Amino acid sequence: MSYLATxxxxxxxxxxxxxxxxxxxxxxxxxxxxxxxxGEPDFPTPPHIAEAAHRAALxxxxxxxxxxxxxxxxxxxxxxxxxxxxxDYGPDDIVVANGAKQIIFNALMATLNDGDEAILxxxxxxxxxxxxxxxxxxxxxxxxxxxxxxxxxxxxxxPAITPRTKWxxxxxxxxxxxxxxxxxxxxxxxxxxARHPQVxxxxxEIYEHILFDGREFVSFGxxxxxxxxRMLIVNGVAKAYAMTGWxxxxxxxxxxxxxxxxxxxxxxxxxxxxxxxxxxxxALTGPQDCIATFRQAFQRRRDLVVAGVAxxxxxxxxxxxxxxxxxxxCAGLIGRTTPQGRRLGTDADVTDYLLTSAxxxxxxxxxxxxxxxxxxxxxxxxxxxxxxIARIARAVAALSPAKAA
Length: 405
What we know:
The protein is of the alpha/beta class.
């Protein structure tokens, strides 16, 4: 008899972590593998941020902090929302957790009852459905097709809502798609939500500073202020400041929800480590020039990958509008045969072939709820991306044509 909780049976490990682990295992055998599975900036954390954590540790800021976050950091987050997003929140409207993922987990833990539904527009971040299932909820995954820029539209949202709908998740810019929403597009979604007052909105805005081609970010909270009482704005320092490993996320939302989330946190991890919060404070209040520097590099890398993929027959990629991923269509490879005689039937077969033959790790689109695609991270150097695209091109060229039915 298994001693594991039955709720775990439906929950899958992180697909992006699995791809990275497979790459590491192959690399351990001496193979030169390019790991494009995980999405994290390859830049070092800016020195003034690391130094702030060092000073805090030396000053004795190593004890428990308030479960919701230090007053100084919550004040800085409130000022960030006001300064950058036009949102009027005070420090009491803010919670801090160990990364944006824990913010989301805490929110679901605090609100989901068995059978409650969460609408996760596909393609979605791999952890969304797994967290929903782990906490007794039911993922509802309407598809947002490529020719709409992978954006959720009112005609797709409306029929997905039922009396059991508890949450709608939005992620913008999107992981894996890079989709960005305009004010008008968000307003149109808000009009649908206004007809369904039971639906809470979780707007995951962790990639807000990574926008391309001169686009400007619009927070869902700014576009639809009338929904403020049922809206959770999620963000963090991981992506904008190259701080993925520091694990500091934050959110703004209604008092009752934040109180419940704080209770969850106080009875699980207690709080975020003091030096980590000091680092996040320095990120939000210190020099911001790193944001533009990183964004310029990410756009250059995006352009490099888009141009490279365009030269590979069988693959498609519209220029991502933000974030640092390429969600590459591979329908043109399905049905083709590898030099080893294996037919590629799914995007998982494609990524397995790329790993074993091209030695490039990618994540299959099935993990994001929309196939046939695969995701690569573009948050690495120009040289590595150039080599990865060249390897993918050679591997694709080695495939035999699909046989006629």
